[in-house]
Amino acid sequence: MHQEERLMSLTLKVWRQKSPKDQGHFETYTVEKVSEHASFLEMLDQLNEQLIREKKDPIAFDHDCREGICGSCGFMINGEAHGPLKRTTVCQLHMRHFKDGETLTIEPWRAQPFTVLKDLMVDRTAFDRIIQAGGYISVDTGSAPDGNAIPIAKPKADWAFDNATCIGCGACVASCKNASAMLFLAAKVNHLVSLPQGQVEREQRVMRMVAQHDDEGFGACTSTGACEAACPKGIRLVAIAQLNRELLRAQFCYQEGSKEEGI
Amino acid sequence: MMVYGLRSYLSSTVGKKFVMGVTGLIWAGFVFLHMLGNLLIFAGPEVYNSYAHQLTSSGLIYVAEFILLGALLTHVILAIQLTLSNRAARGSQPYACTARGSKSVLLSSRTMMFHGSMLLVFLITHLMGFKFGNYYETTVNGVVMRDLHRLVVEVFSQPLAVLWYLVALVLLGVHLSHGVGSIFQSLGLKTLSNEALIKSLSWTYAIVVTLGFLSQPIYVFLMMR
């Protein structure tokens, strides 16, 4: 059955900012003949081609895989991180979810540690530094073991995987009223702590990563759940409770100069 | 840099929230006991006054008051600190839009500082009106004690006082509905399996405490004036 492709026209209020130091302002654009099958980024591509034809500066936005797994893309659409659809990144958000003639306000992630570089692009290297502080396993865990050689209970494996799906896009920070990166941090800590390979550096990992999180200037969690609602990977708010538990546990279980330091 | 040791832990975002949780827990527990005590209004003046007399004449009251005051001050000071640092983290440029659809959150969870501040104001007026309010005396079974029952009837005969308590107690319920659940989150007691239970506990607790408290001014205003 062939269905006619619906074309729509939209009014976009887009945040334009030349550089981190620029004040920034909203500019209004109209895009015509947008296919309902286009992704949100493809719609922006279409607008950018239009801007280039008009000899104007195209809108800068981050993107890479465009299949929702890399964590590069993301901005606010009408105040919602990655737009209105749950568990979806903007690259996987299709125009059929919008109405013809709608006005959309598009803003970059806003948070003190996320400097706006240009238009909708923000600096998320704060996340990289949190990972560098401890989001890894530095001890030799050997080569890939045979399947089922290390038995891990199914719920535990599922939980580790659920947390591992975090793509570090920053939607949690962007939607949190406190610009807290707790959901990201929790996902990274929980992922490793749920698996045997993550046990060795268990205490120092969480202690270092929380310290880095705070140093970067992210806020504290007030468990509003805005992050959980915005997360394109469906990381659960309860993950933060586990992070809190881990940091508390580390205060009692950490032994300085132990094998955890690699000595 | 590591969050290790008491000082480091308590100055981290996670540690501060832990303390918010513990101090919140103390007050959440207190309001419940206070509410149960208030229900004795239905048992008559003698029982009500005797209970209040026994409670305040024991030396333990000073220990309890010390803990409550300490917890309150810590809760308030940390709340101010956290609010300021959270606002700084948010940055100077506000969003032009706020989420309205599926990604919006309960207003009550976003406005803890507002109802918290209102509750602090309420607490001061409440203590001034009752604890440090008019002192009447009565004798129950030969024991001279404070006639708190008379004061309660006096205060809750005034419509404005009842209205103020109504507003404040609803705000207490709103604060508890988010706060009780957040205690479990901040203390790290929430898990995937008890998450739903904690959510309903939080709301039930808030509703029970609010209705329990409200019963007194409403009962006095309607039936005893």
Key features of this structure:
heterodimer; A: 263 residues; alpha+beta; Ubiquitin-like (UB roll); Fumarate Reductase Iron-sulfur Protein, Chain B, domain 2; 2 domains; 8 helices; elongated; B: 225 residues; mainly alpha; 3 helical TM bundles of succinate and fumarate reductases; two-stranded antiparallel ribbon; 2 strands; 73% helix
What does this structure look like?
The complex is a heterodimer of chains A (263) and B (225). Chain A is of the alpha+beta class and 263 residues long. Chain A has helices spanning 40-53, 125-134, 154-164, 171-175, 182-193, 202-215, 226-230, 238-253, and strands at residues 7-16, 25-35, 76-77, 80-81, 103-107, 116-118, 121-122. Chain A folds into two domains: 7-117, Beta-grasp domain (Ubiquitin-like (UB roll)); 124-261, Alpha-helical ferredoxin (Fumarate Reductase Iron-sulfur Protein, Chain B, domain 2, Orthogonal Bundle), CATH 1.10.1060. Chain A contains eight helices and seven strands. In chain A, strand 6 and strand 7 (121-122) form a beta hairpin. In chain A, helix 3 (154-164) packs antiparallel against helix 5 (182-193). The radius of gyration of chain A is 21 Å and the shape is elongated. Chain A starts with 6 loop residues before the first strand and ends in a 10-residue tail after the last helix. The mean pLDDT of chain A is 95. The model of chain B has no long low-confidence stretch (mean pLDDT 97). Helix content of chain B is 73%, strand content 4%. Chain B starts with 5 loop residues before the first helix and ends with a helix. Chain B has a two-stranded antiparallel sheet. Chain B has a single domain (6-86, 107-224), classed as 3 helical TM bundles of succinate and fumarate reductases (Up-down Bundle), CATH 1.20.1300. In chain B, strand 1 and strand 2 form a beta hairpin. In chain B, helix 2 (13-38) packs parallel to helix 9 (195-224) and helix 8 runs antiparallel to helix 9 (195-224). At the A-B interface, strand 4, helix 6, helix 7 and helix 8 of A face helix 1, helix 2, helix 4 and helix 8 of B.
